[in-house]
Amino acid sequence: MSHPFDDAEFATVLKQKVSNTSLKVLLFVNKFYTKIYVNNENNDWIELGYGELGRETRDYLKSLIKAKRVMILESATKDLTLEKPKFEDAQDLSTLKKLDEWIKISINLTAGRLGEVKTHTKNKVMYDAAWRCQFSGCGVDLREHLTSSMSGNYSYYAHIVASSEDGPRGNSDSEKLADEPTNIMLLCDKCHRLIDKIEPHNYSVEILRDMREKSVNEVKRLLDCLKFPEAEMIVIGGKIEGQPFIFNSQDAEEAMWRQEMKSFSQPHRILKNPDYFSASNNPNYWVNIFELFKSEDFPILKKILHKAANDYRPKILVIFPLHGMSVLILSGRIIGDASSIVLFQFHRQKVFGKGKQWAWPEVVEPQGNKFKVITHKDNLDGESEALLLVNITAKIPESELPEYLFNNGYTLPTIEITLDECSFNAICHPKDLEHLGEAIDSAYKKIQDEWRLQKVHLIMVAPTTACVRLGQKMQARHHADFILYERKPGTGNKGPFEPTIQIGAKKVSLVGTDQEIDIS
Length: 520
Description:
This is SAVED domain-containing protein. Residues 306-503 form the SMODS-associated and fused to various effectors domain. It comes from Acinetobacter johnsonii. The protein is of the alpha/beta class. The chain folds into four domains: 4-108; 113-219, no CATH class; 225-343, 3-Layer(aba) Sandwich (Rossmann fold), CATH 3.40.50; 362-518, no CATH class. 31% of the residues lie in helices and 20% in strands. It contains twelve helices and 21 strands. The protein is elongated, with a radius of gyration of 34 Å. The model is unreliable at 148-154 (pLDDT under 50).
């Protein structure tokens, strides 16, 4: 398989293959790059690779030329990889002068003629590129190399259609497009040599135009972000069942840009539970989580919320949640919905595009009646307790509910928030959270204003943002206590539901213990 080499690499590989041997070297060249062959013991020509022939390779070949061990064969083909040389037509390269002349022509064809790119054109190219290399995946800052006093900066302006018909990608429009800004890319020296001298056949006009267009659009998008409102990032994320939670700030910021917001500081990390109690089958899991929240994270969260509420120009609070259901509901309860809060849903199967898994998919806006509130059993006897089911990701089989909540029928007044087709993709548009909030309000109104309950048993299977949203709606004005349930630790998705925490108007307590936190 043929390999691409820059000038230094070619010089190195030639030294390795040819030094201390009597092998000959063949330079198969067009006007801007080369393929190099060496002959083996059987006098067969073996290709070393293709690419850039410059000063380092030239200096190594100098002694070989004197020893009459270098041959040259010229081609009019622009893509040397498609042509096999006629070795019998090769001629001895008798003097170094001929090689120097070829190198000079190659430089002129690829570096551009001095002054052909006018100052106003260069300024336009630099502005569109934000002084960064426009080669995909590079982006190196070229500002210090592009001062007007530097005479050597012409090599950073790379023509897509070459400025000469004889150059890489040259055609009949070459002269006409030589000073056209849309035909010029700003490239670092390494990338410029790659497209013109090392692998010109792999970078067509179409590929480079597309690359330039994407760069210009990305620069514009990034600069347009400067006008976006600033937001504080809050990450509620930790290991769940031993699975690591890795938060990628760049992906999150790109997701924010798509929603026309920008971060102004490092994200605040809440409940980043350490390894030693990250699995819920640890018998002390909830005790440790509760202590972590009480001693470290609740004070941090309270401080952020106080600042957001009292700043002269309060910033948007952007929440990135990925944690257990009870933790997220409690976090939502503390965060509330009085401030400007924006939630971002983690989409597990979305791994490409700007923002990746934190970006909202481009889907049709959902209808307002997507979420339904169903009363399975009314409160006809003045009960003080009720069951609230939230089935969004999946439908919980009634047989898996605790017996004191379902025994051949619901034992307490019961309300369910659900939708026609439960799915982990149920929350795929910001409007979904708005409509879910309306459904939650409707359920809370019945629980609080009509039934006037003292205690609500809450069992929820839903995406992370839905959990936070339900907690946000669970404000102190709703005087009923909410007892949250999750599957028994370590039992997977078929284990029994057990109570975890109880959220009241002024405090949250750990069920079965005397631990509590004042959240008033």
